[in-house]
Design goal:
Largest sheet: 8 strands, parallel, barrel
Radius of gyration: 19 Å
Mean pLDDT: 92
CATH architecture: Alpha-Beta Barrel
CATH topology: TIM Barrel
Strand order of the largest sheet: 1-2-3-4-5-6-7-8
Order of helices and strands: HHHHEHHEHEHEHHEHEHEHEH
Low-confidence stretches: 5-19
């Protein structure tokens, strides 16, 4: 059984993972266009309808589904952001990032194990050195959550210092959180300056801007916030911290994808999308891949432009791949994170 062709049919080959760290040209940003931001309108009904019909318009079955799920694995930022995180837990997670799918499953699918690795490992700042050590020579980057994650309400100077310390410790990607009050109060200049400051502090590290969309009130605010973040130089816009009561939803994903598409049309720059929070099943991963393919095109079906922040999701994907091979579902304990 060989699914390699299906695995590559939704985007670029999952190989070449030695260069997973985001390698596309950076988003240099643009001056803040307040008129464009204030003129944003979103049809909530249309976004909801599009979300409901996305997965019914494209059916992904059998070998094709296995290929799509393998692609999804290569786009996962394997994440642990718990108060009881330890160095041992992070080392085990990094081991899983190197080998996210059991070798016997990949062999049965006809896919070389070296071609399937997680996109990144995402941890708190204190565990960045541990993750960097565990991932040495793997080509898998470490992403640090920063800027007072998850609330983002610490003093600005403290947030800037946190970014710089994480980059100095080895983080190649930094997931920052915005001040939600700037969005809710229409403080677009403040938001722009905040993200631009974060971008500068990141230096060569790529910046993913977490919008915490479940706390922004309206889809129009979501699109405005994404637009401002991209103007300020965001390399990725990210749905959520995973700590909000409402996290990554398909209507939000559609709105963010269209903001990214419009920015690309205006500037020629491709900005990435990261879905995080609440993605737990293979079905969730497939829905987001379909969304990205339909709204942004094949170029975005790539870990340089699409990420999924998750942990438990990987176990369900591995179970589905094993079922594809054996015809049987295994227990979750057979697919530990490390």
């Amino acid at each position: 059984m060989v699914v390699r062709d299906q695995a590559t049919s939704v985007g670029n080959s999952p190989g070449g993972h030695e260069a997973t760290a985001i390698a596309l040209p950076r988003n240099p940003g643009t001056p803040l266009d307040l008129k464009a931001v204030r003129d944003v309108r979103v049809n909530r009904f249309a976004a909801d309808h599009r979300a409901r019909t996305l997965t019914t318009r494209r059916s992904v079955k059998r070998d094709s589904q296995a290929g799509w799920l393998l692609r999804a694995v290569t786009m996962i930022d394997l994440t642990t952001l718990a108060g009881d995180d330890t160095a041992g837990r992070v080392r085990r997670l990094c081991g899983k990032a190197r080998h996210p799918v059991r070798a016997d499953i990949l062999a049965a699918l006809g896919v070389p194990a070296a071609e399937v690795r997680a996109a990144a490992v995402c941890v708190y700042h204190a565990l960045v050195p541990t993750a960097c050590d565990a991932l040495r020579d793997s080509g898998i980057p470490v992403a640090a959550v920063s800027t007072g994650f998850p609330a983002g309400l610490s003093p600005f100077a403290t947030r800037i210092a946190e970014i710089r310390e994480s980059v100095a410790a080895g983080a190649e990607e930094v997931d920052v959180v915005i001040t939600r009050g700037s969005v809710l109060g229409g403080g677009w200049e403040r938001l722009y300056d905040e993200v631009a400051g974060f971008r500068e502090a990141c230096g060569d590290a790529h910046i993913k801007v977490i919008l915490a969309t479940g706390e922004l009130g309206t889809l129009a605010n979501v699109k405005r916030a994404a637009t401002v973040a991209m103007m300020a130089g965001a390399d990725f816009v990210k749905t959520s911290t995973g700590k909000e009561s409402v996290n990554a939803t398909l209507p939000v994903g559609i709105v963010l994808a269209r903001a990214i598409r419009e920015y690309h049309r205006a500037t020629g720059v491709r900005v990435g999308l990261k879905a995080a929070g609440g993605l737990k099943t293979a079905r969730d991963a497939l829905a987001w891949l379909i969304l990205v393919k339909e709204e942004l095109g094949d170029a975005w079906i790539d870990p340089h432009l699409f990420r999924i922040g998750a942990s438990s999701l990987l176990a369900d994907i591995e179970r589905q791949l094993e079922h594809h091979v054996t015809g049987r579902y295994s227990a979750f304990h057979r697919h530990p994170l490390g």
